[in-house]
């Protein structure tokens, strides 16, 4: 995606149609891929990969946030990346980060 972003045609490019600027072109020549189409393709790819667990695009978002949290990233940074206005919304991801909690050493044990 980084390579596409660097090489993509921009709105300032003369003679470049909007369709040529889309990372994910849709079925129609005049529209980008819709979120619904993207969701279907994602589920088809998961099925083709043999994944048995039901997943969605939101699963990827949740996993991304959880991994960042488990790697010790600041929850405020994660909230900003996810576009959350309230930390309470982002804090929902913290209940999954059990490995992080298990790794905390009590000052009484030291």
Question: Any overview of this molecule?
Answer:
With 110 residues, the protein is an all-alpha fold. The protein is built from 6 helices and no strands. The radius of gyration is 20 Å and the shape is elongated. The model has no long low-confidence stretch (mean pLDDT 79).
Alpha carbon gap, first and last residue? 46 Å
Which overall shape is indicated by the principal axes computed on the Cα atoms? Answer: elongated
Q: What is the mean pLDDT?
A: 79
Spans of 5+ residues with little confidence (pLDDT < 50)? Answer: none
Q: Please identify the structural class as seen in this structure.
A: mainly alpha
Radius of gyration: 20 Å
Helical segment tally? Answer: 6
| Percentage of residues assigned to helices | 40-55%
The total beta strand count reads 0
Order of helices and strands: HHHHHH
The amount of beta strand, in percent, is: under 5%
Main sheet summary: none
Question: Which key phrases capture this entry?
Answer:
elongated, 110 residues, 6 helices, mainly alpha
Question: What's this entry about, in short?
Answer:
With 110 residues, the protein is mainly alpha-helical. It has helices spanning 2-7, 35-48, 57-70, 75-82, 87-91, 98-102.
């Amino acid at each position: 995606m980084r390579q596409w972003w660097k090489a993509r045609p921009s709105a300032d490019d003369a003679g470049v149609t909007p369709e040529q600027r889309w990372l994910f072109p849709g079925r129609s020549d005049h529209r980008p891929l819709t979120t619904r189409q993207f969701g279907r393709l994602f589920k088809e790819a998961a099925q083709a990969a043999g994944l048995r667990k039901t997943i969605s695009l939101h699963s990827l978002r949740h996993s991304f946030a959880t991994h960042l949290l488990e790697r010790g990233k600041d929850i405020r940074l994660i909230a900003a990346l996810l576009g959350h206005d309230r930390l309470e919304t982002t804090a929902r991801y913290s209940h999954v980060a059990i490995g992080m909690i298990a790794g905390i050493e009590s000052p009484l044990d030291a």
